[in-house]
């Protein structure tokens, strides 16, 4: 497939997903294209916010990230990076130092993370699926695929101390309250 037709397909798909998202957005989630200097939307780069589940140790936080799409989306998965919190990455075993996410759903097929298998992305999935998976990801670290050693080791050795470190980050992020109605 030519690059221009791949981009056209990706743009059409992202426009459709954005329309569907606006009609059926889960509470407290945010996903919107970044704005370019000319005021237009960049459908290939989105600002997202993932709310922790109410019962989560990450609650009531809402975690800012970026989601970028390649011109051949949906053939390839989006790339997600959590924004740093006071200059530090999210204190999670499966978040890299740069905020990148090690999540089977969006790992590339050639990935050898975890148990040596590649990612599970399929073109039938969409960005809403990724956002919901990220919410679950907060509470269900894959201990077989650590991206950051400090949270991995602490969670493995002293869960109470891990939860304390998480609560310190929760205090520094935006908190969920009433749904803000954002895109």
Automatic annotation (TrEMBL):
InterPro entries: Ub_conjugating_enzyme, UBC, UBQ-conjugating_AS, UBQ-conjugating_enzyme/RWD. It holds the Pfam family UQ_con. One of its GO terms (molecular function) is transferase activity. Residues 1-12 have a biased composition (Low complexity). Residues 9-175 form the UBC core domain. The active site is at 102 (glycyl thioester intermediate). SUPFAM superfamilies: UBC-like. Residues 1-32 are annotated as: Disordered. Residues 14-26 have a biased composition (Basic and acidic residues). Belongs to the ubiquitin-conjugating enzyme family. This is Sumo-conjugating enzyme.
